[in-house]
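Repro:
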Amino acid sequence: MSTKTNLVGLTREGLAQALLGAGVEPKQASMRVQQLWNAMYVQGVTDFDGITTLAKPLRQELSGVFALSRPEVVTAQVSRDGTRKWVIRFAPGIEIETVFIPDEDRGTLCISSQVGCTLSCRFCHTGTQKLVRNLTAAEIVSQVLVARDDLKEWPRAGRNSDTRQITNVVMMGMGEPLYNFENVRDAINVIADGEGLSLSKRRITLSTAGVVPMIPRAGDEIGSMLAISLHAPRDDVRDVIVPLNKKYPIKELLEACRAYPGLSNARRITFEYVMLKGVNDSNADARELVKIIRGIPAKINLIPFNAWPGAPYECSDWERIEEFGEIVNRAGYASPIRTPRGRDIMAACGQLKSESVKQRASERMAELRSRDIGRMPS
């Protein structure tokens, strides 16, 4: 494996420190950061030879210690409805899934923050996969770069930046973003940088199952749009389908939402609500939902449950979803019903799961010892 430091995903400050550590003159570091930033995030360059704004000797010097590398794309699938899903491998056994959903007026990239998840939400396929590890900021940012590569969304691919396909990013893939706070924060700040990938934080949404203590910090240090995986209006139901609720019940979660920095009608919170037949979809549930969120600038996304092998629930009937939504809408809250996308390639909401398996430390050590023995001369 390469020992070179990958510059992708570093903050501007981190990039400057890396260059200074490699011997770049302090007086030139700021200019070099800008040149590299433009190359990585405007031009989509993947090697130093492509950075023609740098002198050739400097390119050679930097390429000896740094990389601008992409992770391995294991598979790339395209759904009948145009949804794309990439299985991305960062290292042996470290894989995640990233999904692009094209619409007429936008293109939404759903990215992951962890390999696996600790939350075990009952309706979510990812929740059946144990947490392997957090993704680094570089690994989070690289999902955007991989998608732009495949969509040919760089000037070097002949596409004008005014016709970009990826207009929105949602942290709604594998994992709980607020359990990987620093890396998610740094990655979002890179993605939102106006001189690089340049996606407004109003077009970046961080979704959490409700890690209450981290929500104020997310508002202060990240400042993106916020989505809450609510899915039930009462603790007795939410305790079962979102077990994190036992630690941070609905009342505490909604208090954190009311105090979210920057909350306004222009920066509403999105409450995500997966529709589970006979579990959380009654008219009484709808009335209770609008009651508990009263006073919070919000919209409610109603999500038809997307089945996966072994799923313990069924999707609510369409008529039931529409009636539920009508009650919410009459109470003054937008309640769009999310059209299922990418079901045929298991790319829909709640269906993501990689093949990564968490190995116990003892198993890894045994495996390494066996490899070492195999390399010993006879």
